[in-house]
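Hello,

Our lab assistant flagged a job as stuck in the queue for most of the afternoon. It eventually completed. Since we weren't sure the result was trustworthy after the delay, we are filing this so someone can double-check. Below is the sequence as submitted and the structure that was eventually returned. Let us know if re-running is recommended.
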Amino acid sequence: MSAPLDPAAPPHPARVDLLWIPLGAGGTGVVRFNGRVYEAVTARTQRRSPRPLYHTALEVEVDGETSIIENAWPSPDRDLASRGVVIEGPVFVRGLARLRTFRYEVRRWPEGIVADADQAVGGPQRLTTDPVTAQRLLALVPSVPPMVWGRDELGVGEMWNSNSVISWLLARSDLGPHRLEPPEGGRAPGWRAGIVASGSGEARNSG
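-- returned structure --
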């Protein structure tokens, strides 16, 4: 995993930073509770102890403008442009996506915010300062495949979720997501699904 940022380091004209955020941090508690139930069932099936779960987001800076890239569910309202939504996808079942409650959104949000970014373990993890790579990643966001959230359509043993979106983007940007791991002892379900969907080769399981 990349080293934490050095606060004394000089600013860069471009950057891609990865955030490892505890699942449900800063939320209402529903996501955290559901995550704990899911992990308890998964751990019991795999005959191991439950582990902390993480979801991910990216901060990408190009030419002095920082954009937030994240996957969020449910879609809170119809004002998609205000939060940089470039893709909407179905949750659980494609046919239910006509209802906003069953749609997720992928955001490329200029000067946006990640509500729980301050709870990212270890702070932002810098992956690159190359402006070409950062720009390419931003350009790729509308190309993320809108797979069904919560389903294993690829047959890899992992559901598609927010981590899949981020790992797909990192793989397609040649930023080696198979070499990245959650904070020690944690899991990032869905990470491998994004790498497999990217067609980039080896997909290491981050959980």
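-- support follow-up --
The delay was a queue issue, not a problem with the job. The result is valid. The first strand starts at residue 14 and ends at 22. Residues 30-46 form the longest helix (17 residues).
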